[in-house]
């Protein structure tokens, strides 16, 4: 249970960063930390104490395995996080070219 | 499971440094430390595929973030509604933590996963798909539509990046 709560603390740090900071790069970093915490919680729920990794071997008898389903879901999510980060950084670079700053309170010109 | 707690504390410390660092480059590097800690804890949690994948993705996203931030910096400013914004954000985060703690009661304890769906995958996966790695059997056979959707999302993101980052727009007549 303490591991779940520490994971929640990590998520909350990312949430605070994404909501409170004004710098666009800091907001991207906050979203990234939230993604890490969510992936971690998925794999943590699927853990079994004493379980082996879900791979069969020819010369060994494996009695207990950890849950492979959250691992399959997280494998998809990790790659999607990378593409989301790529898209956000592209938007941030374009904003810097147009406005000359990363401060979101200075970026208030909505005319095209 | 003391390793998991130590790695989580390391990740929390690196995340606090990443959030509060004044320099953008050092905060990007601190978020890289969070990702490496996540990769190590995937190894401890018996998920070697995810550990390799997370390591590669972490290095790529570090390169992308450094490309976005290098030689561009912003001094800290406390102008505007600083106290109001901080107090509302902290209140929101506290409410979120309370609701999340309520939902944590229905989760299984650490180390006792209820494997309702994946019992069948583990029992029959080797026979039906021929893959020794059960995670590969799930992503590429049982839940292949997830992988198809993932590929679609990656193409959408690449098209978005190309549209955003192009230099020449449509010419005015």
What's the CATH topology label of chain A? Answer: Helix Hairpins
Beta-strand percentage range of chain B: under 5%
Structural class of chain A: mainly alpha
Radius of gyration of chain B: 22 Å
> What's the total number of strands of chain B?
0
* Secondary structure: helix percent of chain A: 55-70%
User: Tally the helices of chain B: what do you get?
Assistant: 7
* SS strand fraction of chain A: under 5%
> Mean of residue pLDDT of chain B?
85
Biggest contact: A-B, 78 and 83 residues
Class based on secondary structure composition and strand pairing of chain B = mainly alpha
Radius of gyration of chain A, whole Å: 20 Å
Q: Give me the strand/helix succession of chain A.
A: HHH
> Main sheet of chain A?
none
Compressed to H and E, one letter per element, the order of chain B equals: HHHHHHH
Amino- and carboxy-terminal Cα gap of chain B: 67 Å
CATH class of chain A: Mainly Alpha
The figure for the number of domains of chain A is: 1
Shape label of chain B: extended
Q: What does this 3D model show about the protein?
A:
The complex is a heterodimer of chains A (about 110) and B (about 170). Chain A contains 3 helices and no strands. Chain A has one domain: Helix Hairpins (Orthogonal Bundle), CATH 1.10.287. Chain A starts with a helix and ends in a 13-residue tail after the last helix. With about 110 residues, chain A is mainly alpha-helical. In chain B, about 75% of the residues lie in helices and about 0% in strands. In chain B, α2 packs antiparallel against α3 (about 50-70) and α6 (about 135-140) packs across α7 (about 145-165). At the A-B interface, α1, α2 and α3 of A face α1, α2, α3, α4 and α5 of B.
């Amino acid at each position: 249970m303490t591991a779940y709560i520490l994971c929640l603390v990590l998520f909350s740090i990312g949430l605070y960063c994404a909501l409170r900071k004004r710098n666009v790069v800091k907001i991207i970093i906050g979203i990234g930390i939230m993604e890490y915490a969510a992936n971690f919680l998925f794999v943590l729920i699927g853990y079994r104490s004493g379980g082996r990794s879900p791979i069969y071997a020819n010369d060994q008898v494996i009695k207990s395995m950890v849950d492979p389903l959250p691992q399959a879901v997280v494998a998809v999510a990790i790659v999607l996080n990378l593409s989301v980060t790529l898209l956000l950084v592209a938007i941030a670079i374009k904003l810097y070219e147009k406005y000359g700053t990363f401060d979101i309170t200075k970026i208030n010109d909505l005319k095209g | 499971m003391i390793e998991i707690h130590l790695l989580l504390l390391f990740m929390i410390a690196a995340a606090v440094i990443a959030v509060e660092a004044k320099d953008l480059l050092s905060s990007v590097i601190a978020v890289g430390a969070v990702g490496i800690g996540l990769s190590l804890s995937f190894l401890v949690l018996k998920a070697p595929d995810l550990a390799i994948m997370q390591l590669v993705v972490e290095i790529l996203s570090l390169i992308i973030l450094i490309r976005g931030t290098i030689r561009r910096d912003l001094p800290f400013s406390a102008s505007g509604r600083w106290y109001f914004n901080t107090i509302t954000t902290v209140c929101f985060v506290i409410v979120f933590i309370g609701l999340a703690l309520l939902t944590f009661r229905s989760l299984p304890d650490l180390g006792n996963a209820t494997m309702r769906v994946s019992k069948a995958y583990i029992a029959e996966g080797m026979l039906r798909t021929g893959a020794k790695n059960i995670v590969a059997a799930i992503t590429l056979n049982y839940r292949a539509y997830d992988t198809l959707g993932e590929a679609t999302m990656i193409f959408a993101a690449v098209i978005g990046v190309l549209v955003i980052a192009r230099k020449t727009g449509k010419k005015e007549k």
